[in-house]
Amino acid sequence: MLKDFKAFVMKGNVLDLAVAVIIGAAFGAIVTSMVNDVIMPPIGLLLSGIDFKELFVSLNGQSYPTLTAAKAAAAPVIAYGLFLNAIINFLIVAFVIFMVVRAASKMQKPAPVADPTTKDCTFCFTPIPIPAKRCPHCTSQLAG
Questions:
Q1: CA gap 46, 69 in Å, rounded
Q2: Fewer CB within 10 Å of terminal CB in the chain, N or C?
Q3: Residue extent(s) of CATH 1.10.1200.120 domains in the chain
Q4: C-alpha angle 90/91/93, rounded to 5°?
Q5: Would you tell me how many other CB atoms lie within 10 Å of the CB of residue 64?
Q6: Mind giving me the DSSP string for the chain?
Q7: Fold of 12-108
Q8: Angstrom distance (rounded) from CA 136 to CA 138
Q9: What pLDDT does 144 receive?
Q10: Which residues have a Cβ under 8 Å from the Cβ of 129 and sit 6 or more positions away?
């Protein structure tokens, strides 16, 4: 059983998947940092200095100066600013994945076109084998 497990783990697909998960997690951290530290601050500045990470609604009716203060008080909140950041993270990751898949598709060689094995009868237009001398459907004599 241990031998079978080792053979399974050492298969190329399993190792490729493990590498993809690790790189994906690292890429996710980079995108999160880019959204939180590069994209959202200028957007917040354009919108009168809003910090999206601090946008929330307190559900208990009390007012809190920051999301951290509300969470420290164990207040129920809807942190829609963090949700907006998560949406932007997703859109960036989805766009990058789309571009990578698109580039990979362009790099792949097109599938070789197989030589045709049939031709159409010139009289009845029924597909027939290329070496045929007579159409099996209409019995017409074929040229060549």
A1: 25
A2: C
A3: 12-108
A4: 65
A5: 17
A6: -HHHHHHHHTSHHHHHHHHHHHHHHHHHHHHHHHIIIIIHHHHHHHTTS--GGG--EETTS---SSHHHHHHTT--EE-HHHHHHHHHHHHHHHHHHHHHHHHHHHHSPPPPPPPP-EEE-TTT--EEETT-SB-TTT-PBPP-
A7: 1.10.1200
A8: 6
A9: 63
A10: 117, 118, 119
User: CA 140 to CA 15: how far, in whole Å?
Assistant: 60
Q: How far apart are CA 19 and CA 127, in angstroms?
A: 49
Amino acid at 114: A
82: amino acid identity, one letter: L
Q: Which residues contact 82 (CB under 8 A, 6 or more apart)?
A: 52, 53, 56, 67
**Amino acid identity for residue 142 in this structure:** L
pLDDT single digits (tens) 59-83: 998 999 999 999 999 999 999 999 9
Burial class (CB in 10 A: 0-12, 13-18, 19+), 35: buried
- φ and ψ of 114, to 5 deg: -75, 145
